Amino acid sequence: MAVVGTVVGSGLVVGTGTAQAANFYTPPSNFASAPGSVVKTQPTELLLQIPGIRGQWPGTATKIMYTSTKQDGAPTAVTGTVVEPTAPWRGKGPRPTVVLAPGTVGQGDQCAGSKMLSFPMSIDPTKPSLGVNYSGLEMNLFLLNGVRVVMTDYIGLGTPGIHTYVNRLESGHAVLDAARAALKVAKAPKDAPVAFSGYSQGGGAAASAAELASTYAADLNVKATYAGAPPADLSKVITKIDGTFIAGAISYAINGLAARYPALGPILTKETNAHGEQVLHNVATQCIADTGLSYGFQRTNQWTRSGKSLASVINGYPEIQKMLADQRIGTLKPNAPVLISTGVNDDVIPHGQVVQLYRDWKKQGATVHLANDYTPPIFPGLVVNHAMPMLFTMLPATNFILSEFNR
């Protein structure tokens, strides 16, 4: 009965939530433009917590809306969640904060992680849509160690506008500004220790934050970053992910790029066929499970007028190559130690481009460590070899960050 009550109360059955919850994601007409400003907050609950009671195990959760920065420098409102742990921090100095950058959850607003805290799944039969928040395990590992956690929803996920999936600047900004906002909400010291952690899309966001911190957020006391399977070079990732169960995620990236690079629109009109146009339109409101079930294992040559793969089409447009080059992670030096992990047989994020990121940072003198996972190939294309290394490196990654907090 308790489980059923939790499911119903979380909106799993109805999928739409309350009007108050929906209104939270609409920014006010005017809000503070300084990055990391707190626009508004709202109490919320974690899994199996009793609504309305603060201070429950493993922590007290608060939804936040905060200010971040778009690629062009314009301020924008982003949502997320701050969780103040019940457990005390027994390490060195004041309680530290970890920003969790979620992996790929989708491009529809209903996929935002902050909407799936009281239950890590949402079903909306009207779309239909299935959303999953799989950051809870990592979040709880930090909470149990007395570490404050803030999870960003990213720009355009939950809030108005398209989610700019794997946009280097915008994902990095969202992570860095989440840290600033969390310190304000917690009334923590401005120089309290901060770290970033993420896998896959989240690994890219964490890696971007690590290398942008010294220029965009020099006020933060960054101690460490864990970047698992980061998509550091999208030109390599597109080829690898093509034809897999989550091939449709390529369209998330295209939609995000089109929103920031107007020159891409006419090219898409010229190169995509009717089916390709439908894919781009549909995935914009889907979660990753929806996209996998709708377009899993499709090849991008099914989306083009010429019958060429998307990678081949890109080769004919220097302007698109420049757009992808703008998203390349590894050109700047992180200002704190970084742990990078990669699966040698990862079937979604190419191992080689992760290793190249490691080399790029090492050449710049960064303190960076590389952890290889050697899980053998298991049903290539089903994303198993992408998911398994995430689970295997979660505890070592947590320990790495905790160790850096205590230096």
The strand order across the widest sheet is: 1-2-3-7-4-8-9-10-11
> Uncertain segments of ≥5 residues (pLDDT<50)?
1-17
Shape: globular
Secondary-structure arrangement, i.e. CATH architecture of the largest domain: 3-Layer(aba) Sandwich
N-to-C SSE string, H for helix and E for strand: HHEEEEEEHEHEHEHHHHHHHEHEH
- Round the mean pLDDT to the nearest integer and report it: 94
Residue share in helix: 25-40%
Pfam families: LIP (PF03583)
Protein name: Lipase
Keywords: Signal
Organism: Gordonia phthalatica
Notes on the protein architecture:
The protein is globular and about 60 Å long. Mean pLDDT is 94; it is low at 1-17. Strand 10, helix 13 and strand 11 form a beta-alpha-beta unit. Helix 4 (168-186) packs across helix 5 and helix 7 (249-260) packs across helix 9. It has helices at 2-10, 19-24, 136-144, 168-186, 201-216, 234-241, 249-260, 264-271, 274-283, 288-295, 310-315, 318-326, 351-363, 384-405, and strands at residues 38-44, 59-69, 75-85, 97-101, 121-124, 129-132, 148-152, 193-199, 221-228, 338-343, 368-373. With 407 residues, it is of the alpha/beta class. It has 14 helices and eleven strands. It has a nine-stranded mixed sheet, sandwiched between helices. Strands 5-6 form a two-stranded antiparallel ribbon. It has two domains: 2-233 and 331-405, Rossmann fold; 240-326, 434 Repressor (Amino-terminal Domain) (Orthogonal Bundle). The longest helix has 22 residues, at 384-405. The protein starts with a helix and ends with a helix. Keywords: Signal. This is Lipase. One of its GO terms (biological process) is lipid catabolic process. InterPro entries: AB_hydrolase_fold, Lipase_secreted. Residues 1-21 form the signal peptide.
